[in-house]
Every structure is written in C-alpha cells, then in structure tokens.
Amino acid sequence: MWTIAIIDDDRQVLKGMKQVIPWEDIDARWAGESLNGARGLELIREEQPDIVITDIYMPVMSGIAMIEKLHEEGYEGKIIIHSGYSDFEVARKALRLNVGDYLSKPVSRDTLREVLQRAIAELEGERRTKQEQERLRDKLMAYEPFVHRERLKSMITGTASEWDEDGLTAQLGGPGRRHLVLGIEILRTARIAEARLSDRLIFRFAVQNIIEEIAHAAHAAFDYIELHGYYSALVLHAGEDEDAGVTVRRMADRIVRCVQQYLQLSVRIGIGGLKNNAAELPESFEEAFHFLSQEHRVLHTPGVFDFAAERESGLISRTLTAGRPMKFYHHLVEDMKETQGKNAAKIIASYIASLRNDREIGVPQLRALGTQFWAIIGYALNDEEIRLDELVKDDRIEQELSTVCTLDQYEAWLNQMVGAVCRHQDWHENFKHRLTIDFIKQYIHEHYAREITIAELASEVYISKNYLCQIFKNGTGETINNYIIRVKMEKAKSLLLERKLKIFEVAENVGYKSIPYFSTTFKKYYGVTPAELIS
User: Fold this and answer.
1) So what's the architecture of 157-316 in CATH?
2) Overall fold of domain 2-129
3) Average per-residue pLDDT in the chain?
4) For the whole prediction, is pTM greater than 0.70?
5) For the chain, what is the largest distance between any 2 Cα atoms, rounded to a whole number of angstroms?
6) Which residues sit opposite 183 in a β-bridge?
7) Superfamily (CATH H level) for 428-534
8) Are 517 and 510 in contact (CB under 8 A)?
C-alpha cells in the first residue's frame, strides 16, 4: 500500500484533498498532514511517505525550501506541487528538483486521480528496478568469494590469459605483502582407494576444514584453493615484518598431524618460496608442488617438504620440473574435465615447446616425465570414477614409454593417452553428468529466494527426479535438498550479519514463509538460532 502526505497552510484544502483522493482505488493510505513546510519536513522525515502533495507559499518554511531540503537528504518519494499561483520561477525550480507534477488550485477529482496513478506507476517501476539491482548486487556478493578464488587459482597456476596485478594485489592485502603457496596432496592410501565417491568428497571437505581452522588459529591471512583431484593450495599472505618461515613450517606440520589424528588420512605438503609480490606467486606454486616431481616420492610418503631447504641441500631434480609441469598438469586436467580434451593438443604442444630449450632432457628424463604424468593424471581424475590402471595397464605404459626417445614422440604419446581417456564411454557419461550438476547448482544459487522443488529442477534438465537425485548425490556427495538448504542458510547468515534486515525479512529473502521453521532449520545448520547469532 502506498502512503500519501499533504502539506498546505489552508485547513479547508487539507480537508478537501483528503476527501477527493480515491484512496481505495489507488491502494493508498493517508500518512499525515502539516500546515507549514517546517512541520511538513519533520513529518516526511518521520513517516517517509511515498508521495507528498505540497503547497508552495506557506509560513515558517516555503514548499520550495522544504523540497530543496528533501532533495539534499536524498528523499526518494514523489512530490506533487498543488498551488494557487502560476509562477514561472517556481515552476523552473520545481523542474530542477525533479518534482513530479505541478497542479493549479482548484484541481478536479479526475485530474488528481490521473496524477496520483502516474506517480504510483513511476514508483512501481523504480521499485522493480531497485529490487532487480539489489538482487543482482546480492548475487554478485554471493559469487564474489568464488570469483576471487577462481581469479587467484588461474593466476597461481599460470592459466590466466590476463589478469589485473594491481587489483589482485589490493585483494591480497595491498602492496608490501609477501606471499607463498603451500601445495597439499591427500595421499592414495587404502582408506581413500576403498572409499565411495561421496565419502571421498567428504574427506576432502573435512581436510579443508582442518586446514582453514589451523590457519585461522595461527592468525594467518590466507586463501584456500581447490585444484584438481586431491590437490589443493593454501596461499598465505604475510606482512613485511612477519617472520613467515618458522610459522609456516609449524602450520604445515600441524596440518599433517591433525589430518592423521582426526581423519586417519595422510597428506603431504610442499612449501613454496616466499615471494615479495603477487606476480611471483606462480613460481611459488611450482616450488610448492615440486615434491610431486621427486621420483621416490610419487606415491605414499607423507610429511612436509620445503623447497628452499631442499634446493640448498641439492636434492632437487631440476629436469623433472622443467616447463612448469604443475601448470601443464592443472591446465590439461581442467580441459579434460570441462571440454573432454578439445584443447588438449594445444596445451600439450605448448608444454613440449617449453621443454625444447632444455638440453638436459634425454631419453631417461622423457620416460620419467611420462611415468610422472600418468601417475598424477590418474590421481587427479580419480573422482571421475575411471581407474586408469583398468583402462591402460601399467606394464603397457612402461612398454610404450620404452619406445619414446624424442620430444616429438613424447608429444604424440601424450596426445594418444589423453585421447584414450576422453573417448572412454564412462568418461563421456560423467562429462554430461557434470554439466547437469553445474547447471543445477547455478540454478539453485539464482533462485534461492523462493521455494525450489526437485520436480522443478528435473524439468529444467529434462530427466527424471530419481535420476537427477542419483547423479547429483554421486557427483557432489550430498543430496539436492541438503544443497538447497546449505545455499539458503549461508545466504541467510550473510544477511543476518549485515544487520540491515529483521529476522522475518531475512527468512523471506531466502524463501521461508514460516519464521519458526526458518529458525529451527538455521539452528540445525549452525547450532544457534538467528536471534542468538546477532545478539
């Protein structure tokens, strides 16, 4: 319902206007009246009516002076001047102040109705525009952490075509900050190999929680980045005066111990070099994952490996890190997952080109690189439910690599192996399932403000409800309903912490009509009620 205030120093005009306004027809109610501009200004500040009908020449404060003050204060309602004088200068000022209409006394009932209906139509249009802008703003805010992580991920892995160094530096704490990467791998123990996909996803989520809790406890500024398979990166940001070396080593050791103690899983962590600016983070990333290149550590050696310390000790094999292999592996896996390897040939060709200037690469090094490639790619693609050792036996890999003697032959072998994986029927089915899951996730993020049903989601992707539930659970480790609730609860928590909306308004914003049910669901998810969270 719209609200209308009337400001006029003539009591008869006030009474007459209240009688002739078609309140019910235009869905409006009276918000108050005043006999002068000063009192009118106080009334408008207090009631914030949608429409103000005001005279011009009044005692204490004129209508124009009142309108100018409202304009300065950002009043967003519609103002209609109702005056018995035809004053060109007043009309000019009214135009400058965006007054909606200028009515001459006396005004007919039909004219007043028409003017008010036009003002309400404009208010409705402005409200819809504002709501759409707020929806887009909320959507952008919801995606902002994801966008930041993806930008940082593409930058540290070296796969970004271009990036704003100044903008990223500002997001990472501004100039003067130093950065390093911890490369984290969950090892392929029997506990991982025998687990179902949904359990493996839970393991990864639990490992992430432990890492983030330890980083928070150390008062570290950080970003946690999911990579492919069971690899992730913890990007730490330190001040110029912070002694990061000892702190980082202790943090890494504690992560290894806690993951083993609480999850019975083994991880190993590589510590990259401390860099003086964001632009050098890709180098720290390669250094952090250098331990993957050590032939005697490819499979089951947990612990912490410090690139700087091993470089000083002479244990680092430079040959197996030539051409920035982690960038290559990450870029290739991402392409296989997202496009079924449509760009794989170009990615492989670029990597081979980077190796051609390395004089140390001979036949033994090429075969070692091939073994490393197959081991890392196989582990990274483990979630696709395709076991590469079943697709191609290890003895066949050794046999094929024994014939690789040149970079051209190695390039051909890489293309052959990627093609074999991407052409596999199970991989094709998983690719389609992943596209479906990504669409459903995006749809939920875009429509969380209302009730979403599984039937509705199934109709969007043209498959049955049961089949959709099955592939979503297999692909994410959680049910669709749980995912919908999680998105709604995370958004609700964000809105509550902003403290701009009341609890019932937050509930409505995330699609809950029942406030008690919203509060109960919120407490189940976070352990506290909405009221307790903001108290």
Assistant:
1) 2-Layer Sandwich (3.30)
2) Rossmann fold (3.40.50)
3) 81
4) no
5) 104
6) 233, 270
7) Homeodomain-like (1.10.10.60)
8) no
